[in-house]
Design a protein that fits this description.
The protein contains twelve helices and no strands. The chain is mostly helical. The protein has two domains: 95 residues, Helix-hairpin-Helix base-excision DNA repair enzymes (C-terminal) (Endonuclease Iii, domain 2); 101 residues, Endonuclease III, domain 1 (Orthogonal Bundle). The two termini are 22 Å apart.
Length: 216
């Protein structure tokens, strides 16, 4: 895709979803520790479900030191409504223990260091870096971003690491963090996985999926 078309897509989606970054439904609000834990919990689970456990989880374990000392059973009791709650309880406890043992109880500020934390991949690291620490180092590729990148025509692969590289090549670095937010907003509001609303989509003229779909 031409960079000028990518720029137009970003502009159109930015205008459609001006408050994407500040949505109250975003998990990326709060301290770096909270963003880290909530993003780990969000894997294969809706943000709404994760937000429901946010208050009781951080009321009980407000710091990495507190969560590091928790038992898996106690954490499971709080996050039991989430998918894969057993593994996620293990991950967030282990992540908290790593913050204490490796980083003095603070969330590290580099991709390399974040990736050393249990349960943290590039998606989580990118969200923490941008939303919690103000560092624009990559693009968080979640299920919405992956779907839209493929449909629109930014990437022809299913590998999230390659999709991230393709998106980074298509957009200037200063737009990387917000690009994730507007793509997620568009995926939720319009470009649904099963029933995309192409007839009201503001970027349909640039979309590979729509061009293919409209000819059928």
């Amino acid at each position: 895709m031409k960079k000028q078309d990518a720029a137009k897509i970003y502009s159109l989606l930015g205008n459609r979803y001006p408050d994407a970054r500040d949505s109250p439904a975003m998990l990326s609000k709060g301290s770096a520790f909270e963003v880290l834990v909530l993003t780990i919990l969000s894997a294969q689970t809706t943000d709404r479900a994760v937000l429901r456990v946010k208050e009781p989880l951080f009321f009980t374990y407000p710091t990495p030191a507190a969560l590091a000392k928790a038992t898996i059973e106690d954490v499971e009791t709080i996050i039991h409504s989430l998918g894969y709650f057993h593994a996620k309880a293990q991950h967030i406890i282990a992540a908290s223990q790593a913050l204490l043992s490796e980083f003095g109880g603070r969330v590290p500020e580099t991709m390399e260091e974040l990736l050393k934390i249990p349960g943290v991949g590039r998606k989580t690291a990118n969200i923490v870096l941008y939303h919690a620490l103000g560092r624009n180092e990559g693009i968080a590729v979640d299920t919405h971003v992956r779907r839209l990148a493929q449909r629109i025509g930014f990437s022809a692969t299913d590998k999230v690491t390659v999709i991230e590289q393709d998106l980074m090549a298509a957009f200037p670095q200063k737009k990387w963090g917000d690009l994730t937010d507007v793509l997620i907003a568009h995926g939720r509001a319009c470009c649904d996985a099963k029933k995309p609303k192409c007839e009201v989509c503001p970027i349909s003229q640039y979309c590979q999926f729509y061009r293919t779909f409209s000819k059928k």
